[in-house]
Design goal:
binds ligand FO1; seven-stranded parallel β-sheet; 12 helices; 37% helix; alpha/beta; globular
């Protein structure tokens, strides 16, 4: 069985553990969001790619869901002693090694997809991890502040905790970006495509903004898992992102936002089981089940339900 998953950060990585547990023999290709990527201290940081790589490779900081386990912060503290910023984005010593090697390989002219493959040789995540594009795409946020500031997504997300409302969220560079090698094939050759409970705007939405990817996915059976339970995001601040694009923060709102031309099946939590017969989701197969990924067994059950629904719809 060939499964292709469009993935953001923490929620996607945890969901992927469930997919691996539910379908141990499946060939899984992950198309990772690179809109979160940022250059800090001259180093290219790819948060969503690293979160998938570290989580499935066993190196993730479990309590944070990002960055490395057993971290130390000598480099961060030394940089701070020099007054070198920014200090609001915490990079650990072990994590710095990933960014140093990635930056060195990129500077040698290797595309991000090749660099990602090289890093995964160490971590053996058990999936093929592809960036959505080898071209630079960065999510920028237009703030509803006095200056109408335009900031990098990470500054809005990490420094401002998305507390300043966003007037617009744009994937800068997406229009001219090409899907990375293997991305369109991974979608076309898959038995079905899964959307994990990632941020529908800045993670899944950004991947879909790369020309060609949305159409490729639309031609397949796509089953998604709601990142919103009972009107609130399970984790992160998807509500702030959804507000920025005028989408209601609900399981129904997100599925309607993806649309029936893209989405075929949708998993919602039992709290939202009214979605199963909401007219806004006509044409979608909606299933209600416990959706909190509280442990691996619960996550595997969710993944199994998504796989079962996808096979039923194919
Ligand atoms: N998220 C934070 O809230 N604070 C941080 O200091 C932080 C540092 C960081 C370093 C490396 C990395 O790969 C991710 C990091 N994140 C941090 C998470 C990052 O903001 C992700 O992009 C979001 O979690 C959205 O996926």
């Amino acid at each position: 069985m060939r499964i292709t998953v469009l993935a953001g950060g923490v929620g996607a990585a945890r969901f992927l553990r469930g997919v691996q547990a539910a379908a141990p023999g499946a060939q899984i290709t992950v198309i990772g969001n690179t809109g979160d990527d940022i250059t800090l201290f001259g180093l290219r940081v790819c948060p969503d790619l690293d979160t998938v790589m570290y989580t499935l490779g066993g190196g993730i900081s479990e309590e944070q869901g990002w960055g490395r386990a057993d971290e130390s912060f000598s480099i961060r503290d030394e940089l701070a002693a020099y007054g070198a910023g920014p200090s609001w984005f915490t990079l650990g010593d072990r994590d710095f090694a990933t960014h140093i090697l990635r930056t060195q390989l990129l500077a040698a002219g290797k595309p991000l997809s090749e660099v990602t493959r090289r890093l995964c040789e160490r971590w053996q995540p058990g999936v093929e991890l592809l960036p959505m594009s080898d071209d630079k795409v960065e999510t920028h946020v237009l703030l509803d502040d006095a200056e109408r500031s335009l900031v990098h997504f990470q500054e809005w997300w990490v420094r401002l905790h998305a507390a300043v409302p966003a007037l617009a969220i744009t994937a800068a560079g997406a229009q001219g970006a090409r899907p990375a090698p293997g991305v369109l094939e991974a979608i076309a050759d898959a038995d079905f495509v899964l959307f994990p409970p990632s941020n529908p705007v800045v993670s899944i939405g950004t991947i879909l903004s790369v020309p060609g990817i949305r159409d490729a996915a639309g031609a397949k059976t796509v089953v998604g898992v709601s990142p919103i339970i009972g009107g609130a995001p399970v984790r992160g601040m998807a509500d702030a992102c959804l507000a920025a694009i005028g989408v209601r923060t609900s399981a129904v709102g997100v599925a309607a936002h993806y649309g029936p031309d893209l989405l075929n099946g949708w998993l919602v939590d039992e709290q939202d089981k009214a979605a199963t017969d909401d007219p806004a989701l006509a044409g979608l197969q909606v299933r209600a089940l416990p959706l909190y990924m509280r442990d691996l067994a619960a996550t595997a059950a969710i993944a199994q339900a998504a796989i079962d629904l996808a096979r039923e719809l194919t």
